[in-house]
Amino acid sequence: MIKFLIPVLVALESADGIFTYFKVGKDLVKEANPLLQSIAGTDSFLIMKICGALLCGILLWLVYKRFPRISLITTSSIALFYTAVLAWNLCVLL
Question: How far apart are CA 45 and CA 40, in angstroms?
């Protein structure tokens, strides 16, 4: 299950970064996270978002080896969160 969830999580988080990069860069939306507002829409943001997603996936895989239940719950929760974020982003634009 974790071999499916981690790539899904990385893909969802990366998709959120790509979506934000293009939409904020074209002034269609604003970044809701105050910590990222100043760099959203820049190349640095996109690199940081994708690298962060990969790092998150690696860390969750390492946690899984020792604490599989915690890793599954955490990975599932974060994947659900990013699913909701992407759904919200699509609803805002439609």
Answer: 6
Alpha carbon distance, N-terminus to C-terminus of the chain: 33
What's the chain's average pLDDT?
92
Give the chain's domain count. 1
The domain of 61 spans 2-93
Which residue, 26, 9, 2, 20, is CA-closest to 80? Answer: 9
How far apart CA 29 and CA 71 sit, in angstroms, is: 33
Helical pair 68-93 and 43-66, crossing angle rounded to 10 deg = 150
Pair 52, 36: CB distance under 8 Å: no
Q: Kindly report the pTM of this predicted structure.
A: 0.87
DSSP for 35-47, written as a single string: TTTTTTTSHHHHH
